[in-house]
């Protein structure tokens, strides 16, 4: 089985909110540590890595993304 490589840069292109990704990873990692089962086959047994892998694979989404769009700068 080949290992999947986690790329923050690729994820930040998919989710363009600078601070939303770490918050989502932290919240999901906390849930994994306390009670949740992973949606993916983990690369390592670290809740933060598993959470990042789940978000990258699209199993975990950020709620209320439309609210975050307000925070994006309108630069021309």
Structural notes for this entry:
The chain is mostly helical and 76 residues long. It contains four helices and no strands. α2 crosses α3. The radius of gyration is 13 Å and the shape is elongated. The relative contact order is 0.19. The mean pLDDT is 79.
Short description, anyone?
The protein is built from 4 helices and no strands.
How many domains comprise the coordinates? Answer: 1
The total of helices stands at: 4
Name the assembly state.
single chain
Q: What value does the Rg take, in angstroms? A: 13 Å
Write down the overall mean pLDDT. Answer: 79
Layout of helices and strands:
Blueprint: H1 8-14, H2 20-34, H3 47-57, H4 65-69
Helix pairs in contact: 2-3
EC number: 2.7.7.6
GO molecular function: DNA binding; DNA-directed RNA polymerase activity
InterPro entries: DNA-dir_RNA_pol_omega (IPR003716), Pol_omega/Rpo6/RPB6 (IPR006110), RPB6/omega-like_sf (IPR036161)
């Amino acid at each position: 089985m080949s290992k999947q490589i986690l790329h923050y840069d690729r994820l930040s292109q998919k989710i363009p909110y600078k601070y939303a990704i770490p918050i989502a990873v932290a919240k999901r990692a906390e849930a994994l540590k306390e009670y949740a089962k992973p949606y993916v086959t983990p690369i390592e047994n670290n809740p933060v890595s598993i959470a990042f892998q789940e978000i990258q694979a699209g199993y975990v989404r950020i709620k209320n993304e439309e609210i975050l769009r307000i925070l994006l700068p309108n630069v021309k």
